[in-house]
Amino acid sequence: MRNPWRATVLGSQVAELLRRPGRFAATGLSLLIAAFVVFGTVMAQQIITATVVDTFRGTPGAVSLVVGPGGEEDIGEDRLREIRGTPGVIEAVGRFEGGAPLGGSAVERYLALSADPGTGALAEVRLIKGTYPSGPGLLAVNTEAASAYDLAPGSSLTLLRPAPDGEGTRRVTVEVSGIVRSTATHDAEPTGYAPGSRIGDLLGAPGYSRVDVRTDPASAAAADPARMTERIRQAAPGAEVRSGDEVREEEARQAVAEAKDSLELVNVFLAVAVGAAVLVATSTFRIVFTRRVRQLALLRAIGATPRRIAVALVAEGAVVGLLAGTTGVLAAWGCGLLVPPVAGRFGHDLSVASPLPPAEAALTVLGTGLLAVLAVLAPSLTASRVSPLQALRSAESGEGTANGVGRTLLGLLCAAGAAFLARQQYAGLPRPGDTDYDRFLALTVVVLSGGLAFLALIALGPRLVRPVLSAVALPLRRTGAAGRLAVAGIGGAPGRAASVSVVVALGACLVGSTLTCLASLESYERYRQAVAAPADFHLYPRDSGTLDRLLAADLASRPELAGVTAFRTAEVVQGTYSATVSDLDLGAVRSGVSLTARTGSLDGLPPAHAVVDAGYAHRLGVRAGDRVTVTYEGRPVRLTVAATLPGAGPYGGNFFVPAADLTRMGADAAPTVVTADAAQDGDRGRIRAQRAITETLTGPRRGDGRVLAEDATGPAEGADTLRTVATTVIMLLGLTVLVAVAGVATTASLTVVERKREFGLLRALGLGGSAVHRMVMVECALYGVLGGVLGLALALPYSWLVVRVAETGAPFTVPAGQLAVVFTTLVLVTAAAGTVPALRASRTSPTVAVARAE
Predict the structure, then answer these.
(1) How far apart, in whole angstroms, are the C-alpha atoms of residue 469 and residue 488?
(2) Closest listed residue to residue 276, CA positions, set 429, 86, 503
(3) Residue 791 and residue 512 in contact, taking contact as beta carbons nearer than 8 Å
């Protein structure tokens, strides 16, 4: 028999849904945003996959079979001839990849070498200037090599290859016959090309690492792929034979996997955004159900059980979630279709994604419905227990149940767990030189601790609102009635304020942590670059000894060079360890790059003082102000530690002392190292600088030296990479802030509806519409203030812990200006979220104060 009460309860909820669709649109807004960003990520993955597949160029499409050695030995020339003679084979080319240093310059350079026929269907390069090598002593280079080494057809190159007897090197001079462009998307380094046999002769290679085979599709011998594969195996016993389609699919999968790696981080922040959406939806449902307390009490009065009411409210939430999920999926799909043409207008070629993926769309919609059920569960259980007597009362805010003892105990328990994990991780932080430290596990523990801390913030939020509010809102109480009423309005509903502010705090915490970690890692990146590549060129003796004393002055006189620096190094003993002492001025590094001190200061190194690298500082247990003793040629030298470095020292130095101290120790006055930078940026400037160094290095003592061209990846590029990653992360974290702003707007809208009589009474007492407008705007801004304070309070300690775990030597740097901008932005956007609700509140008529409550 049909249960009449079920029909009555469900019918009342459906009627309410139809009567006030705007109210339920507000409850589903955060869920709609969550569905949009989740399915938007699905569309982004599809666009990336389609773009990579369409643009990827690996094994040429004409390759029918790919033959690999199958063992440790490469495929020899005789085997290649057997493969070419196999019936059904039109063409077979051997592939070999290697490389060789370039001679003829004081600067060490390297050229990758690759075997390629240069013409035909199996060629991976296209000639753009000159001719392709057709005989011995010729080599084609790609555009990257031509630009980096200033090459053109007719230029000569000297390759250094091991001598046949294994002792020394053999110099092989080749002529550049042409410039080519590689069609392979993975080939972007300076590379030389020639047919396989020529490359093998240059490198002394015994065979090929791979053979690409093109078969005749019209041939009867090649009609059966399995039979053709067997024939190739007979021609090259032990070889591994795969189809060209299989190899191309594997290469494309690898390329797609590498592209999708950039989205792995997105999934983490999507989970955060979805969690924020659930929190906002939970708060919104609680407000809506509190507003409908009289309706629910009437249902209880006519016999509806709490279980039936709870089921009806959950069903209502599920419907809202499914509708929101459907809308979000369709909106994301539409945006995904618009992205490629819009990107094309800005010069970015993106492929159109496949049609709407039904499985992912259905899962997103169902997942949004499930999130809605999770969000509505707790508010529905609370609302279903309403007393029938509430039918005779006005709607209340529901704050009385917000601060239960159980919730407080849960919050304290989560806080204790977070503190315990953080303390354990602090005690186990890595020391300089630790190589077996499991950073992934450590970061996992830090994230777990941060998650518990955030759960504690959720549970204890209602108890934290009033103390934090009393501290930050003191100036508002002095701005007039609107400010005082706004503070009282937030403080009078701490549970509601906490529900919204916690989501804002989540965004503030994540953005603040990202900016702080970025500032710290950028500082360490500048230090690392200063150590790894302090200058463009590094000249030092081949054997232990010194360089010409006039070499630095002669190099400094060349206009192609800048920043020429000469310094000395010497070996000392500290206890049972040997160490390197240097008189390098740590301020004389590449322009725009600076070293930082972990303890002490690097400015103005006094006599008898030293700067110690992180490894020796940890080994000796010293910091700025301590004393150390080193031994040079049997004589002890006492030094005071002026500063310690966060990592290794430049050029392998362990102790850095003033030049006068190194001279008093007995070191030779001639330099052991000379460094220089190119006077002009770019490849052209470096090429001119290399020529200047080569021309200057004449004479017996100078000729004994050699120059290394340091890594061309400058500090700006490394910092740009960090900033690009951080910008991407911050944009993703903006999803959380977007959900938080939606929550503020929804809460403010529902609050305005709920407090109509209050606003009417204020208007009746003489408060103007503009004052009411300011009051609501200030209340919304206070959500941003509370969230910003609580979020940044969590961000700073956990940022410090993350930086210490990720990179022990990184100095902890707080970007105070950026954090102030984040805080101000949060306050402004949350205030802006209340614009429309404030306008509605300002229009409340004073007559509402005497009207019967809805």
Answers:
(1) 10
(2) 503
(3) yes
Between CA 183 and CA 161 the distance in angstroms is 28
Angle at 201 (CA atoms; ends 195, 202), nearest 5 degrees = 90
List, for residues 620-666, the tens digit of each pLDDT value.
888 888 999 888 888 888 999 999 888 778 877 889 999 898 888 88
Nearest to 232 by CA among 33, 75, 418, 390: 75
Q: Which helix (H) or strand (E) holds 631?
A: strand 627-632
Rounded alpha-carbon distances, angstroms, from residue 389 to 293, 539, 575: 10, 91, 85
* Rounded Cα distance, 830 and 274, in Å: 19
DSSP, collapsed to helix, strand or coil, labels residue 52 as helix
- How many Cα atoms occupy the beta-carbon half-sphere of 183 within 13 Å? 16
* pTM of model > 0.90: no
> In whole angstroms, what is the distance from residue 43 CA to residue 334 CA?
10
Q: CA angle, 96 as apex, 95 and 100 as ends, to 5°? A: 150
Which portions of the chain are predicted below pLDDT 50?
A: 1-7, 394-403, 591-592, 703-706, 708-718, 852-854
Number of CB atoms found within 10 A of residue 601's CB: 12
Rounded to whole angstroms, the Cα distance separating 96 from 107 reads: 26
Whether the CB-CB separation of 81 and 90 falls below 8 Å is answered with: no
Do you know the residue count of the chain?
854
Among residues 467, 465, 487, which one has the least CA distance to residue 476?
Answer: 487
Q: Contact at 8 Å (CB) between 330 and 379?
A: no
